[in-house]
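Sequence only, no structure available. Ideas?
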Amino acid sequence: MTNVCQRFNSIVNSYGRYQTLTTLLLSRNEIEDDEEQHLADELIPHTTLTTVDLESNQTIEVGAQHLANALKHNKTLTTLKLSVDEIEEDEAKHLADAFKYNMTLTTLDLSDNKIGEVGAQHLADALKHNRTLTTLDLSDNKIGEVGIKYFVAALKDNMTLTTLDLSTNQIRHVGTRHLANALKHNTTLTTLKLSQDGIGEVGAKDLADALKHNMILTALYLSGNEIGEVGVQYFVDALKHNTTLTTLQFAANLIGDVGAQHLADALQHNTTLTTLHLWRNQIGNVGVQYLADSLQYNTTLTTLHLSENRIQDVGAQYLADALEHNTTLTSLALSYNETSSGMNMEISRLIERNKRGRKP
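Reply:
I predicted one. Tokens follow.
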């Protein structure tokens, strides 16, 4: 990508209609340091640009310095995407320094980089000063158990962050415990993503205990954490106390029929959960029968994902029978099970009926 940013500057300066440009998408363009400097120089005086996407450009230290300098002065940018950019701890430090001064950025995507625990410390320190960032994606960054402790400290001071994605960072049960303790006191975070973090049963217990106290969190993503049927029981107990959680992503957690039974018991009494993801959980006909029975009593769940399980026509019939009485479920995913096309059509018919019934 030769001199792409210089050409961008030329276009913006030459044509008046581009003076109101709000979104710039430059992902996967192999932007080099000098080109990133041109872009950074343009960002400083620009008064309309609100979104910049630089995904997969392998931003190295010099390029990160240019961007950081621009962020210290830019007054309009609200969304910056730097995922898959080979950002490590040095680049993270430059960006973190900028966030201490930038008061307009609300969404930052640094997913799939290599910031590590040192980079995490720099960003966490910045969160103690920043008062505008609401969404931060740090998934797949090798933060680990040590790095998560820095964010726990930051969450005590930060009063603006509402969405935090720490998936695929191997924080394990030790890091989860630190985070769970922070959740008991945090009053702003509404969405937390911890998929594929090696949480296990022990970490599940700590998170579930936190949910008994936290009445702010509305969405929790925990797929691929080997929580199992024992771990799911902890969350069932928590749902008896929690009155704010509306989305629970529990996919690929080996809960089986027993875990499905535990969740079914919770659904009979819970009145806030609207979305439940249980795909790839080894749930068979027995487990789905428990879930189907709960749907005859539950009046709040609107979305249930059961794809990639072990459900056959017998189990699907339980769901169909439940839908004869349930009028609130409007999305039911059963793909990649062992159900026939005829049964799938019957389920679809009942779901479509519910959708029509919800229309004014």
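The two ends are 52 Å apart (CA to CA).
Hope that gets you unstuck.
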